[in-house]
Amino acid sequence: MLGWGLFALALGALIVVPFLLWEEALVEQSRVWLAVPGARALVAVACVALLASDIALPVPSSFVAAGAVASLGPFLGAATVWVGLSLGAALGYAIGRGGGRPVAARLVGDGELARAERLMERYGAAVLVVCRGVPVLAEASVLLAGAARLGILRFAAVTGASNLGLALAYALLSRAFGGEVVSFVLPFALGILVPALAIGVVQLAERR
Fold it and tell me: Do residues 113 and 144 touch, judged by C-beta distance below 8 A?
């Protein structure tokens, strides 16, 4: 978790500092570009693809999700995030179910997989909800659910609901702090805030 935190701070600094210097021009250019027919659809498809591939690739999903709601607006943005996260969860479940624990461990590491196992032993399928917004643990939990042969309907219901909650969290925070592309700092702030809150929930669960 510390490694992700340092990565997030470094990435945030690299992105936010230039936008603080040239934000007004970049925001205006983005509004112009998003007004082009088909541009929003292209952004939505790209975000879905990135979020779905996060199970196997090092995609900063929290930044992608926050960027989606900031650029597409709370409604289309939330729908895009939900579809992308749900596809990624389904893919992770399929990989875990087909390849078992060894494949899951290769993708997320033995340490994070073992952590997800401890949480699942204590909380059962609810761990999918608790871990959904936490980097690495989110992927580890769905891979583990597949490897453990958790019922597919139960898995779909739990992850679908938790993904919806996460998508709505990004959308509501984006709406509260600025709505559509009013600030380029917003998505990166949300990309750190939402996972940080989720990490706090997991740490509280582990202490119980």
Answer: yes
Greatest pairwise CA separation for the chain in angstroms: 52
Q: What is the 3-state secondary structure (H, E, C) of 8-63?
A: HHHHHHHHHHHHHHHHHHHHHHHHHHHCCCCHHHHHHHHHHHHHHHCCCCCCCHHH
Report pLDDT digits (tens) over 22-69.
Answer: 556 555 555 565 666 778 889 899 999 999 998 888 787 877 888 788
Rounded to two decimals, the pTM is 0.72
72: nearest Cα among 109, 46, 91: 46
Residues 6+ apart with CB under 8 A from 28: none
Among 122, 102, 103, which Cα is nearest to 202's?
122
Contact partners, residue 50, CB within 8 Å, separation at least 6:
59, 61, 64, 84
